[in-house]
């Protein structure tokens, strides 16, 4: 798996789903991409959509903190995921988030540290 860092905006509020005994927070990040042509930055016509999954405390904190439209930075491992029946299988790229944060180039954040219980120390 390759490590990716992306920046963009949340397409919708994060969604928490159960996968066995763990909760996974799923969300989409819309990234406006472009390239330099003749010394000028030209945005692509269509933004890129990234599917992101965050587990455990990272997922819980993401769902509690971020909302649709918020500017974010995500770093994680990217892999291909598949779903659907064998005769009509779909494939897509998913980033398993290692870190998720607010993009402070485009927003102001107020930090509130989480506290560890005695069991976690």
Helix content: under 10%
Q: Would you tell me the overall average pLDDT?
A: 90
Distance between the termini: 31 Å
Total domain units: 1
Quick one: biggest sheet? 5 strands, mixed, barrel
What structural class is derived from the secondary structure elements? mainly beta
- The CATH topology annotation reads as OB fold (Dihydrolipoamide Acetyltransferase, E2P)
CATH architecture: Beta Barrel
Q: What is the H-and-E element order?
A: EEEEEEHEE
Principal-axis shape: globular
- Cα radius of gyration in angstroms: 17 Å
Percent range for β-strand residues: over 45%
Weakly predicted, low-confidence segments? none
What is the β-strand count? 8
Number of helices: 1
- In CATH's first tier, which class applies? Mainly Beta
What would you note in describing this structure?
The chain has a single domain, classed as Nucleic acid-binding proteins (OB fold (Dihydrolipoamide Acetyltransferase, E2P), Beta Barrel). 8% of the residues lie in helices and 55% in strands. The protein has one helix at residues 56-65; strands at 2-10, 15-19, 22-31, 34-37, 40-43, 48-55, 71-83, 90-102. It has a 5-stranded mixed beta barrel with strand order 1-3-6-8-7. A two-stranded antiparallel ribbon has the order 4-5.
């Amino acid at each position: 798996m390759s490590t990716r860092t992306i920046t963009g905006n949340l397409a919708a509020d994060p969604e928490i789903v159960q996968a066995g005994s763990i909760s996974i927070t799923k969300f989409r990040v819309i990234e406006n991409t472009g390239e330099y042509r003749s010394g000028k930055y030209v945005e692509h016509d269509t933004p890129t959509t990234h599917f992101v999954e965050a587990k455990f405390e990272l997922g819980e904190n993401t769902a509690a903190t971020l909302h649709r439209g918020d500017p974010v930075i995500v770093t994680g491992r990217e892999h291909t995921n598949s779903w659907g029946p064998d005769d009509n299988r779909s494939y897509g790229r998913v980033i398993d988030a290692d870190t998720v944060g607010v993009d402070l180039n485009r927003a102001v954040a107020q930090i509130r540290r989480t506290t560890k219980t005695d069991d976690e120390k």
